[in-house]
């Protein structure tokens, strides 16, 4: 039995609440159980210097954890003067995941930045951030389209992410912190609505995992992402 009493293929309770920020062009408060992340998408009428004159846009992300998002207060990275390697890795992952389903040429010379602020952490902050960021991005693009800021379709597909792992010898879906901290294998999967794999991060914490175990994790991830994408679709109706 899992610590949360969930079935092996059961997600935590997931909610996607749109329009939670008064000022952002798109926003979503995503909850994967006790992991809560605020995602806001902001439009900027510019692109990075290295993209100027190429007639295409850019989608990027920033990620951070509030000081009391965890059991003990963390020092703000801004006060430390630099971002941690973990923060940089996660925000690059979020950006890559979103760009995988965006037509940057159709966007034109504009940049959308999605800020992901972890309010409360209980495992799976990066997967929750990716899933909620898609909703915030969708609403930002809808805001732009209503103002005739681009022609055609910019958003090509859904994208969502979920964690899987091997806990006490069993492949399980959507790990919370209690499982994540004790898992023999921990993996994150980013998958599109059409089933394309954007990224897989998988690590054995002790004994290496087998190819059969990996296939079990991938199968669980596909099921989980399919459910998350269904929730995304319901949230934007």
Automatic annotation (TrEMBL):
<dbReference type="GO" id="GO:0009022">
    <property type="term" value="F:tRNA nucleotidyltransferase activity"/>
</dbReference>
<keyword id="KW-0819">tRNA processing</keyword>
<feature type="domain" description="Exoribonuclease phosphorolytic">
    <location>
        <begin position="159"/>
        <end position="223"/>
    </location>
</feature>
<dbReference type="InterPro" id="IPR018336">
    <property type="entry name" value="RNase_PH_CS"/>
</dbReference>
<dbReference type="InterPro" id="IPR002381">
    <property type="entry name" value="RNase_PH_bac-type"/>
</dbReference>
<dbReference type="GO" id="GO:0031125">
    <property type="term" value="P:rRNA 3'-end processing"/>
</dbReference>
<dbReference type="GO" id="GO:0016075">
    <property type="term" value="P:rRNA catabolic process"/>
</dbReference>
<keyword id="KW-0694">RNA-binding</keyword>
<dbReference type="Pfam" id="PF03725">
    <property type="entry name" value="RNase_PH_C"/>
</dbReference>
<keyword id="KW-0698">rRNA processing</keyword>
<feature type="domain" description="Exoribonuclease phosphorolytic">
    <location>
        <begin position="10"/>
        <end position="140"/>
    </location>
</feature>
<keyword id="KW-0820">tRNA-binding</keyword>
<dbReference type="InterPro" id="IPR001247">
    <property type="entry name" value="ExoRNase_PH_dom1"/>
</dbReference>
<dbReference type="InterPro" id="IPR036345">
    <property type="entry name" value="ExoRNase_PH_dom2_sf"/>
</dbReference>
<feature type="binding site">
    <location>
        <begin position="124"/>
        <end position="126"/>
    </location>
    <ligand>
        <name>phosphate</name>
    </ligand>
</feature>
<keyword id="KW-0548">Nucleotidyltransferase</keyword>
<comment type="subunit">
    <text>Homohexameric ring arranged as a trimer of dimers.</text>
</comment>
<comment type="function">
    <text>Phosphorolytic 3'-5' exoribonuclease that plays an important role in tRNA 3'-end maturation. Removes nucleotide residues following the 3'-CCA terminus of tRNAs; can also add nucleotides to the ends of RNA molecules by using nucleoside diphosphates as substrates, but this may not be physiologically important. Probably plays a role in initiation of 16S rRNA degradation (leading to ribosome degradation) during starvation.</text>
</comment>
<dbReference type="InterPro" id="IPR020568">
    <property type="entry name" value="Ribosomal_Su5_D2-typ_SF"/>
</dbReference>
<keyword id="KW-0808">Transferase</keyword>
<comment type="similarity">
    <text>Belongs to the RNase PH family.</text>
</comment>
<dbReference type="GO" id="GO:0000175">
    <property type="term" value="F:3'-5'-RNA exonuclease activity"/>
</dbReference>
<dbReference type="InterPro" id="IPR027408">
    <property type="entry name" value="PNPase/RNase_PH_dom_sf"/>
</dbReference>
<dbReference type="Pfam" id="PF01138">
    <property type="entry name" value="RNase_PH"/>
</dbReference>
<dbReference type="InterPro" id="IPR015847">
    <property type="entry name" value="ExoRNase_PH_dom2"/>
</dbReference>
<dbReference type="GO" id="GO:0008033">
    <property type="term" value="P:tRNA processing"/>
</dbReference>
<dbReference type="GO" id="GO:0000049">
    <property type="term" value="F:tRNA binding"/>
</dbReference>
<dbReference type="InterPro" id="IPR050080">
    <property type="entry name" value="RNase_PH"/>
</dbReference>
<protein>
    <recommendedName>
        <fullName>Ribonuclease PH</fullName>
        <ecNumber>2.7.7.56</ecNumber>
    </recommendedName>
</protein>
<feature type="binding site">
    <location>
        <position position="86"/>
    </location>
    <ligand>
        <name>phosphate</name>
    </ligand>
</feature>
């Amino acid at each position: 039995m899992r610590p949360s009493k969930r079935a092996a293929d059961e997600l935590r309770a997931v909610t996607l609440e749109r329009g939670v920020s008064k000022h952002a062009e798109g926003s979503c408060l995503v909850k994967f159980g006790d992991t809560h992340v605020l995602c806001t998408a902001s439009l900027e009428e510019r692109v990075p210097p290295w993209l100027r004159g190429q007639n295409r846009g850019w989608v990027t992300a920033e990620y951070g954890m509030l000081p009391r998002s965890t059991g003990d207060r963390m020092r703000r990275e801004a006060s430390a003067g630099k971002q941690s390697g973990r923060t940089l890795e996660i925000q690059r992952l979020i950006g890559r995941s979103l760009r995988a389903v965006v037509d940057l040429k159709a966007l034109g010379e504009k940049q959308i930045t999605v800020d992901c602020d972890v309010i409360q952490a209980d495992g799976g902050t990066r997967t929750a951030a990716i899933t909620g960021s898609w909703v915030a991005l969708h609403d930002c693009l809808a805001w732009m389209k209503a103002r005739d800021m681009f022609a055609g379709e910019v958003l090509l597909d859904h994208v969502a992410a979920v964690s899987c792992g091997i806990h006490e010898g069993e492949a399980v879906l959507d790990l919370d912190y209690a499982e994540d901290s004790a898992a023999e294998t921990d993996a994150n999967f980013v998958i599109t609505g059409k089933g394309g794999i954007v990224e897989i991060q998988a690590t054995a914490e002790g004994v290496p995992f087998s190819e059969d175990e990996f296939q079990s994790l991938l199968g669980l991830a596909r099921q989980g992402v399919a459910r998350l994408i269904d929730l995304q679709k319901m949230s934007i109706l």
